Task: structure prediction
Amino acid sequence: MSTRRDRWYVVPEVWLILIMLGATMAGSISLAVTAFTHRDELRRSGPAIAAPLPPTHAHASDDVTP
Result:
């Protein structure tokens, strides 16, 4: 390798890595800002539909002992 090619800022692959790292950081920061600034709005789309599965816990009325 020549002396001119030994400098890190002359090697094009280094710039490619730096650009990819910078784009990744900018995208991550923009996604985090978007996630914190936009609130999720829960909207109901009509009455609740009964689930086909049985409940996972007993209700208070089911605790009657014989």
